[in-house]
Amino acid sequence: MLIRQLLVIMSLLNDVFKGVVKGVRLSKDHIIESYIKVPIGLLLMLCALYGINEGIDFHFPASVALMLALFISLCLASLKWKHKVSQIVKIINIPAGFALRWINIFFTPAFIPLPLSSWISAREALTIAAIFIFGFVLAMVGMAYATVLMQRLFKKTRRSTVERAEELESSKESNLGASTSSYKNEQNIENTSKLEESNESSPTHSRSNSIGGLLSPVDTLRQVPQNVLDDIARGDEDELELQYRRSITLSRQATRREFEVATTMDDIVSNSHSTEPSTDGGIPSPPSPVAKPLSKGSVNIFIETKNKLFCRRASLAQTQQIERHLKIAYFIQNNFDYMVFTTLFIVSLPIYFTLDYAMPLHLSISIFTFLFMINVPPPKWRKYLHPVLCSVGISWLLYYIFSLMKHEDFLDSLRQYKTGRNYLRLFNHRQTNKPPGAGDVFSTLMDCSIVSLSISMFNYRDDLIRHFSQIVPVIIFMTVTNFFIYPIVCYKLGLSPENSLGFAGRSVTLALGTPFEDSLGGSQQLMACTTVVTGILGALFGQKMFKWMKIREDDYVTRGITLGLNCSAIATAHLLSIDPRAGAMSSLAFTLFGTLMVIFAAIPPLASVIRSWVGLE
């Protein structure tokens, strides 16, 4: 009995070892991409930002300066060296793609310190709500009709030819649910085919994850587009339309291809009864959907088709060993990032309680809560439960629990979240001697995300030229209105100077709204809250408002520009799921609008005039 138990334990340890080795090998490409190439690219980007910040004599965000310089350089170089520029863009997109896909979590430093802000009166809160609602409706109506007017003046009315999901089955299912289903089928097919290939050769293919598994920094956009596109969209409108059509075709082919794989029984028989170890270390056929359904009926089928007599019990035992080996490999492959984050959390506990340094703990909690809000809520609820707002609320609760365990005041714990020691002040001990917090890490990566917007704008350069006459006049009008009218109106209605300036960035995406408010000295907390709520309202009621304004459903230019200027990237993500070409226009609109707002705020005479209007100068 003891010998049998030892053999079972040794067999289990052997399977664990093989599974770990195979899981790491399958994750090799992902490790190289996400944990070597991406950090090196981000470090080079931060070095360039630091040099620009030290070299600029006037007050202008280094991230926006590098974004504009990179965008202009790529556009000019593509005129003569198009192929070489495309190769350069692929290299830049390694760190840039990471920064854009994780951009939502970089917004949390604007929300976490909210309990540290001064309280406002009930009258000012009601005034903020009234200005917000009135401004939202007025801006939606004004921008929509202004875009229609520009199209009629220049006679460039364009209609979308995309057959959208909600036009075919709008009353049956939500668009995000349909999008998730098609991507799940596509990913299941990809996982099956890749693991079949690994049975014959060592795994050198790129890492693939299931929808329900790991949201890796590199693969998140491809696998769960409705989640990571919350704050940025890429690709020109024609390419997005082709991708949309391709996803529909793949969803129709998924069931048929899975059935064909499931009916290929010869591979199961050979894998189930092979007692010779693999010479190349490859993984046998995947346990799903091929190896798992080894029921009694399927075994009888194998006996009848192959005319082989074998012990059913031995076959099932061998299959269980194969499945255990594969399950471990699958688990490591699909949860490698989670294992890294869990290790960070475990290591952060003794650092937090013994060294009194909260950054690793706050960082791991913020990441876990954000991924939880991306994965757990059903797709139809994600429009309401925005991951940034909800993850901040859960993080507050966990921070409070850990502060109680440490017998520390909750507000003192929040003060460690963002100390101001980001990459620009990391080597300057005269300004602050406090170590960086989790918010400083996120704000540092936010600057990388702003620079990465240049790649998005470069991809849209053809759309910008094509729709220049409709986009630019409307953007200039929206910029002048928000920059010069919002602050003075809010101040006259009783808002504080900081909140009045904070309202000027209501429609600016958070990535560009942060440097905008830094230049003006406005409230980043108010700007962040109004921006997120505006985006959610645009996703929920934007299409209904277009219907009420009698804007055609196929007028993707008007719909894209209107939602992009008013509701920034959150509504853009929703728009991409129902009309990709409108989503492309929306992405271009909010990026240009935010850039122009930052440029206005960085001009000292203009900033001084606005600040004097609200009583700050």
From TrEMBL:
Taxonomic source organism: Cyberlindnera fabianii
Residue span of region Disordered: 164-216, 266-290
Keyword tRNA-binding: no
Keywords linked to the UniProt accession: Membrane, Transmembrane, Transmembrane helix
Location relative to the cell: Membrane
Polar residues biased stretches: 173-192, 200-211, 269-278
One Pfam family, short name: LrgB
Residues that span the membrane, as ranges: 35-52, 58-79, 91-114, 126-150, 336-353, 359-377, 384-402, 441-459, 471-489, 525-544, 556-576, 582-603
Name of the featured protein: CYFA0S20e02102g1_1
GO CC terms in record: membrane
Predominant cellular place of this UniProt entry's protein: membrane
Topology in the lipid bilayer: Multi-pass membrane protein
UniProt cross-references to InterPro entries, sorted A to Z: CidB/LrgB (IPR007300)
